[in-house]
Specification:
The complex is a heterodimer of chains A (about 220) and B (about 250).
Chain A (H helix, E strand, L loop, with lengths): L2 H37 L4 H16 L2 H16 L7 H27 L3 H9 L4 H31 L11 H12 L3 H27 L6
Chain B lengths: L3 E12 L2 E12 L3 E5 L6 H8 L7 E6 L2 E7 L2 E4 L2 H8 L2 E4 L11 H11 L4 H14 L15 H13 L5 E5 L7 H16 L3 E5 L3 H7 L2 E6 L2 E6 L1 H5 L4 H8 L4
Parallel strand pairs in B: 3-9, 3-10, 7-8, 8-9
Antiparallel strand pairs in B: 1-2, 1-4, 4-5, 5-6, 10-11
Helix pairs in contact in B: 3-4, 3-5, 5-6
Classes of the chains: A mainly alpha (about 220), B alpha/beta (about 250).
The complex binds adenosine-5'-triphosphate (ATP) and magnesium ion (MG).
Adenosine-5'-triphosphate binds next to α1 of chain B.
Chain lengths: ~220, ~250
């Protein structure tokens, strides 16, 4: 196989990897906020169930979650699994898993905003929605940005776990070519790709943090 | 006799069964400056927080002008509707010990946004904010962020922020306690200026000399009860052993 063909095949996988990355963020970042609210709910059963969900997501391997979600339609509902479900299963598993991590980050961010901010807003006539949207959330975003950055960088590397259900992403393809051609080159190329991807992600996150550095808490 | 702005009667408040306020009654008239003094843990902050509805009281009634925020009905304390409470909330302002400015807003936005949310038109809100900043000697700080200001400046901004909403009564909870001694003067000066303009104020403070000079009335609160109450002369020369013991510690 020529280098050109190899790269073309890897490129296809790269597209899938990037899609997994962005779709996961697209769903898990907002979902995490919802989960954080449920976790902080005053209704005991709600916060308890959410707590269990978070603890399972964080306490078991993502690869296992991936496989369970991929095969559950077959084992639970006895539906035949179509191959197009692979990608959907990956997005569902990643979104659910990362939402749990993000929820805990949001929660600690929300709880670290001093009570006085809520009280000042209340006395100044802000209603609950205005208080959260205008006063609390911007401060939470600034506080959670560094830990979110860490998770996002982990996500870039975690996308490779979807090889477990044979999704045609970068790492899966690199492994296949490496086996077929008995060459380590494809794996090196894949490694280089993840590394550069992460440099870009880190740079973007840093820009965002800079954007929020005009004030101090 | 001027109008009664605030009437608290038989206010009670307990935290986990521990009574912090026991039957507090207090009325404040237009233009009065009332200071609340007393030992730590006596319930001063709790009284202010109940009066400003940051804390719900367990018993008694709370009235601003002719509007009840809470009233006693067959042994229970019943609060008015959320809408009514919001409107009553516009009658007073509260200045916190640790300022509680919004760190992500400039000084100007800290003062204008609450006005905008309460329906004031933009240009007018900004004009009022700038006028207040000038009055309080902060005209050059409009575009600064709170972290760029000294504690004394932050506290003056938070006073401006409260005043911008045009409250009839202003509450202060130890407005200078979080400040370095050399910065308390600038904040006390602002409060004195407000007293000269006949702003109605209720001030929790440990600044005895200041309370003595400024107040129309001083309340001594201990163990959740008003132990003594009167003009500064009455209170500081009273025979009440607790009061003179407490005041004596401040070497007047
Ligand atoms: N949210 C709360 N939960 C439980 N106990 C509380 C709470 N707030 C106040 N207390 C208790 O109520 C009592 C009175 O507190 P408060 O803060 O009103 O006193 P204070 O007179 O303002 O004291 P200081 O001069 O130290 O500010 C204290 O014993 C305090 O521990
Ligand atoms: Mg206090």
């Amino acid at each position: 196989m020529s280098i050109g063909v190899m790269f073309r095949e890897l490129m296809g996988g790269m597209g899938v990897t990037v899609s997994i990355f962005f779709l996961t963020l697209l769903f898990s970042l907002p979902l995490g906020l919802v989960v954080a609210f449920l976790r902080m709910s005053r209704l005991k059963p709600v916060s308890l169930i959410t707590g269990i969900y978070i603890s399972i997501m964080r306490g078991t391997p993502l690869m296992l979650q991936l496989i369970v979600i991929y095969f559950s339609p077959y084992y639970v509902f006895h539906v035949k699994i179509s191959s197009s479900f692979r990608f959907v299963a990956v997005i569902i598993a990643f979104a659910l898993n990362y939402a749990a991590y993000f929820a805990e980050i949001y929660r600690s961010g929300i709880q670290s905003v001093p009570r006085g901010q809520y009280e000042a807003a209340h006395v100044l006539g802000y209603d609950r929605r205005q208080t959260f949207a205008r006063i609390i959330l911007p401060q939470v975003l600034k506080r959670v940005l560094p830990p979110i950055t860490n998770e996002v960088i982990t996500l870039v590397k975690d996308t490779s776990l979807s090889f477990a259900i044979a999704t045609a992403e970068m790492f899966t393809i690199a492994k296949q070519i490496a086996a077929k051609e008995a060459s380590i080159m494809p794996l090196m190329a894949a490694g280089l790709f993840y590394y550069i991807f992460n440099l870009v992600v880190a740079w973007a996150c840093e820009r965002l943090e800079k954007h929020y550095s005009y004030y101090r808490i | 006799m001027s109008e009664v702005l605030l009437e608290i009667s038989h206010m009670k408040k307990a935290f986990n069964g521990q009574e912090v306020l026991k039957d507090i009654s207090l009325s404040v008239s237009q233009g009065e400056v009332v200071s609340i003094i007393g030992p730590s843990g006596g319930g001063k902050s709790t009284l202010l927080r109940c009066a400003t509805m940051l804390e719900t009281m367990d018993g008694g009634s709370l009235r601003y002008l002719d509007r009840y925020a809470a009233r006693e009905e067959d042994g229970h304390c019943v609060y008015a509707s959320a809408q009514e409470l919001r409107e009553i909330g516009r009658m007073f302002g509260l200045v916190f010990q640790n300022f509680n400015l919004f760190p992500h807003y400039t000084v100007l936005k800290n003062i204008t946004e609450p006005q905008l949310l309460s329906g004031t038109e933009g240009a007018q809100a900004e004009k009022r904010a700038r006028d207040l900043l000038t009055d309080l000697g902060l005209s050059d700080k409009a575009d600064a962020y709170p972290f760029q200001l000294s504690g004394g400046q932050q506290q003056r901004v938070s006073i401006a922020r409260a005043l911008a909403l045009g409250p009839k009564i202003l509450f202060f909870d130890e407005p200078t306690s979080a400040l370095d001694p050399e910065l308390t003067g600038e904040v006390l000066r602002v409060i004195r200026q407000l007293a000269d303009e006949h702003m109605t104020m209720i001030i929790v403070t440990h600044e005895m000399q200041f309370a003595k000079e400024l107040s129309d009335r001083i309340i001594f609160l201990e163990h959740g009860c008003i132990e003594a109450e009167g003009t500064p002369e009455e209170l500081f020369s009273s025979g009440n052993a607790r009061v003179s013991d407490f005041v004596g510690r401040f070497r007047l």
